[in-house]
Amino acid sequence: MRDDFSLRTKDILAKRVGFLCSNPACNMPTVGPHSDDTKITNIGVAAHITAASIGGPRYDPNCDEQQRSSVDNGLWLCQSCSKLIDSDLPKYSIEVLRDWKKNAEKNAGERLNRQLSVSSGAPLNNQIDWEQIKPNGLYEKEFGGQRIQYYLIGDLLHFEHESSPGVITYGVLDKQGNLKDLKLPYPLSEYSVEIPENLVLSRNLTSLPDGRIREDVSMKWGKSAIVIRDAQNKLTDVHIVGGSSVNHVLKKFIVSPPISHR
Fold first, then answer.
1. Which residues contact 87 (CB under 8 A, 6 or more apart)?
2. Contact 251, 186 (CB under 8 A)
3. For 183-220, how does the pLDDT look when each residue is reduced to its tens digit (9 = 90+)?
4. CB 182 within 8 A of CB 160
5. What is the pLDDT of residue 122?
6. Residue 150 carries which DSSP code?
7. Collapsing DSSP states into helix, strand and coil, what is residue 79?
8. Would you say 227 and 102 are in contact if contact means Cβ atoms under 8 Å apart?
């Protein structure tokens, strides 16, 4: 007897990777229009990482029925790649397929949140035409199922961004795109800071009297950061000058070089 995925589990697997094949060498879209405008064409498959039944590819006798049919044991692939992984078991091991799944979901999260970047053309960034925003006027936009509101007071732009129902970020930007204040949807301690080494000019660590560690990072292009962590290396404070993005899927502050406008 097979431990098949439910329709809900298949739907979750597909949406968690944006309906793209999870094979990094393929990455093919698996859903699109049908000739009947009331239907879609779906060439995606919810594949089992460990087999759904005894004798199947990569069968794991230590998994129970619930584990075999869970989201954790599923991988969204196009039909060709679903056949491929079962044709060469030594090459497409459980470890390889779990890496595909992890990276496909990570990439989907980055694509989803790329538009939220303060420095990459998001609705709120340092390229805003501030002259077109009237003081004390509340503006609202919706894009890709997300909602953002913004309100100009003096030289500071207050914004509230709802990236998904109930996941709300509130912040304040100055005209240079610097975050003056930020209220996150998750505890700051769950976030990390990602700064490419090719941007870093210097790093200085200082032990604070309360046992926390302060890291001052000087970067190219006028960027800088102050990052303070506790004894468990958890963030307790962060201040980034020069623009950064906040990825709430990966729970990261991401600093990137300036965008080239050619």
1. none
2. yes
3. 777 888 999 999 999 999 999 999 999 899 999 999 99
4. no
5. 40
6. E
7. helix
8. no
- In this prediction, residue 161 has a pLDDT band, given cuts at 50, 70 and 90, of confident
Neighbouring CB atoms inside 10 A of 58's CB total 16
In terms of C-beta distances under 8 Å and separation of at least 24 residues, what long-range contacts does 178-187 make, across chains too? 178/240, 178/241, 178/242, 178/243, 179/118, 179/239, 179/240, 179/244, 180/156, 182/246, 184/246, 184/248, 185/248, 186/248, 186/251
Please tell me whether residue 142 adopts helix, strand or coil conformation.
strand
**Whole-angstrom distance, CA of residue 226 vs CA of residue 242:** 12
**202: helix, strand or coil:** strand
> Which run of H or E residues covers position 32?
strand 31-33
Q: Is residue 21 within 8 Å of residue 31, measured between CB atoms?
A: no
Q: How many CA atoms lie within 13 A of 219 on its CB side?
A: 25
Q: For Cα atoms 183, 186, 187, give the angle at the middle one, nearest 5 degrees.
A: 85
